[in-house]
Specification:
Elements (H helix, E strand, L loop, with lengths): L1 H36 L7 H35 L3 E7 L10 E7 L5 E9 L2 E9 L10 H11 L3
Antiparallel strand pairs: 1-2, 2-3, 3-4
């Protein structure tokens, strides 16, 4: 009789432990479900899953739109001036100050132009020369070369 009582007691202890384990598992599962439902009143899991699928589709569309915008902006940025170099100088050592200048405006591929302004007594002279891949088809002055180099080496 005593052994039956011990076996019966052992079975009850095992069942109580199993019940506690299942209660903990249920609480964890309920917590995960409440995260999935996000406080919404959902009739069943199918509705919750369908709403999540719709949200994922919307996010995919948004991501595609963002990538399209990025590609358009990359195309625009290739055509914009990204590198600027400027040198002020005095073309005549005996008079005036550093009133003259050379400015180089280049894109990412080092294409663009350099503008030089020479300030003299009689007025101001402005020159522009195109730049392709950091080089010009026209002879560049020392200051123009320096402005182009500053733009190219700009970090």
């Amino acid at each position: 009789m005593e052994t039956i009582f011990i076996i019966f007691l052992a079975i009850i202890i095992i069942l109580i432990g199993l019940d506690a384990f299942l209660a903990i598992c249920f609480l964890k599962f309920k917590k995960k479900l409440s995260f999935l439902f996000k406080g919404k009143k959902v009739m069943n899991i199918e509705e919750a899953i369908l709403s999540q699928v719709q949200e994922i589709k919307k996010q995919d569309e948004n991501i595609k739109e963002i990538f399209d915008r990025i590609k358009r902006l990359e195309g625009v940025s290739e055509k914009t001036f990204q590198k600027i170099g400027m040198v002020r100088f005095n073309p005549f050592n005996d008079m005036g100050g550093n009133q003259s200048f050379a400015v180089a405006l280049l894109n990412d591929k080092n294409d663009g132009f350099v503008i030089s302004s020479l300030f003299i007594k009689e007025g101001n002279r402005v020159y522009a020369k195109s730049i392709k891949v950091g080089q010009s088809d026209y002879p560049l002055s020392k200051e123009e070369k320096e402005a182009v180099e500053k733009a190219i080496n700009q970090k």
